[in-house]
Write a structure and sequence with these properties.
The complex is a heterodimer. Chain A is mainly beta. Chain A has helices at about 60-65, 95-100, 180-185; strands spanning about 25, 45-50, 60, 70-80, 85-95, 110-115, 120-125, 135-140, 140-145, 155, 170-175. By secondary structure, chain B is α/β, with parallel strands linked by helices. The chains are: A mainly beta, B alpha/beta. The interface of A and B includes residues 2, 82, 117 and 182 of A.
Chain lengths: ~200, ~220
């Protein structure tokens, strides 16, 4: 392995094991990164859908989704641009709860998460099940700010954060992988920070 | 590393000769990765400032951030002759191929990828396709100050303008962008989150559709 002349870095010895390779702890900041202009979505017209390869395509309104059993996440998030943020807390509903109602077909293997802005991101279905994904509308006990994806975003914290689609409008279940927005622009189809799956070909 | 030149008190341009030349698109970036002897690594993305060409060289302009792990290494340690590990070019969204009208709006260091686009337009003799508006605090904060000015480039100063500058210091507003709105234009907005939010709001008031706006943000929210 080639070393960079004169670079000592922040030291692997004191390195926090919660940091995936190539990441750094951003502390109390929470950067906003977006490709498109921030939208304004009214709660009254907000909806979330699960469609595609399911027995029952379903759409929830804001009130309907809030009536479901709540789910929360407390832990870390990791952005492909190399910052990680520890001990965040989100509240909403588990995607498992939503999928239990929609009933995925056996042939469903992948999902595309799509947003009210037209943003899309693809994931294996396995990565949004088993207690690993949520639709969230609260952050740190307060309503999620619009810049961070409010009124509601997808949360898949075990993958790089571009998979946690802001302003999420639904999940479409497919029997094949279909690259979403960043994936078609050079980023990885799965995005596991512990395997450093940042870009296509990683 | 071939050459290091100073743009401003806090920004330098690094010219790198690539071991595997690869022609980038204007707007793309490279990732620079530093490796310490104990295998610790730090990586950051930097936009390419130079226009795509066959030279096998790219220029990255980097602002030295207070406490910035990679930027302070680049500013304080690297010298011509050093080898750096880079990966790229990366990005397919915030790119311009010199084939359509573009309004380029950059704040501070956000001008870097837009400079690649402006250089491409000028070199291809398609200045008619671009309008660049760059917003900086003072004249000392302007990157590429010798090269950037031209009929297709407008500079907006927000804190302090040169004496007898036609526009007094102040934040970028509709009047600064109006002249650049041609039909079918795509806006490329680059800068801090605060800058990007403000400019996309102004562009919205000028009735640019969301689909016509591409945004690249640098740095944290604060």
């Amino acid at each position: 392995m080639k070393f960079t002349r004169g670079f000592e870095g922040r030291g692997a010895a004191g390195r926090n094991p919660r940091l995936p390779p190539g990441q750094y702890d951003i502390g109390s900041d929470w950067p906003v990164l977006t490709a498109e202009a921030t939208p304004n979505i009214a709660i009254a017209s907000w909806s979330f859908a699960i469609e595609g390869l399911v027995r029952r395509p379903v759409t929830w309104t804001w009130d309907e989704i809030h009536a479901l059993e709540p789910g929360t996440y407390e832990g870390d998030i990791h952005c492909v641009t190399t910052w990680s943020k520890f001990d965040v807390s989100f509240g909403g509903v588990s995607v498992d709860t939503l999928l239990a109602i929609a009933e995925p077909l056996e042939s469903a293997s992948h999902v595309v998460a799509y947003s009210h802005t037209g943003y899309t991101t693809n994931l294996p279905l396995a990565d949004v099940t088993g207690g690993r994904a949520w639709v969230v509308w609260d952050y740190g006990g307060r309503p999620l700010e619009v810049g961070h994806g409010g009124p509601a975003r997808l949360l898949v914290p075990h993958l790089y954060f571009w998979k946690s689609a802001k302003w999420v409008a639904g999940l479409r279940l497919l029997d094949h992988d279909e690259p979403g927005f960043w994936e078609a622009n050079g980023y990885h189809d799965r995005g596991d920070p512990w395997l450093e799956q940042r870009y296509q070909g990683d | 590393m071939e050459a290091v030149t100073k743009e401003t008190e806090r920004a330098k341009t690094f010219r790198l000769a690539l071991s595997e030349p690869s022609r980038h698109l204007a707007g793309q970036h490279y990732v620079v990765r530093l490796t310490a002897p104990d295998r610790y690594t730090a990586s950051r993305s930097y936009s390419v400032a130079s226009a795509p060409d066959e030279s096998g060289r790219i220029e990255l302009t980097v602002e030295r951030l207070e406490g910035g792990e990679v930027s302070s290494y680049l500013h304080d340690v690297v010298v011509p002759g050093d080898e750096l590990e880079v990966r790229g070019p990366i990005g397919g969204w915030f790119v311009w191929r010199c084939d359509s009208p573009a309004l380029l709006v950059g704040g501070g260091s956000g001008v870097v990828p837009l400079m690649a686009m402006l250089r491409l337009a000028r070199r291809s003799e398609r200045r008619d396709l671009v309008r660049l508006v760059v917003s900086v605090r003072t004249p000392e904060d302007l990157y590429y100050s010798e090269e950037l000015p031209g009929p297709e480039a407008t500079i907006v100063f927000t804190r302090e303008a040169p004496p007898s500058w036609p526009r007094g210091p102040g934040r970028l507003e509709e009047s600064d962008l109006l002249h650049a709105l041609t039909p079918g234009v795509t806006a490329y907005v680059c800068g801090s989150s605060g800058f990007a939010d403000h400019v996309t709001e102004v562009l919205g008031r000028l009735e640019l559709a969301d689909e016509q706006i591409r945004v690249e943000r640098f740095g944290p929210t604060t």
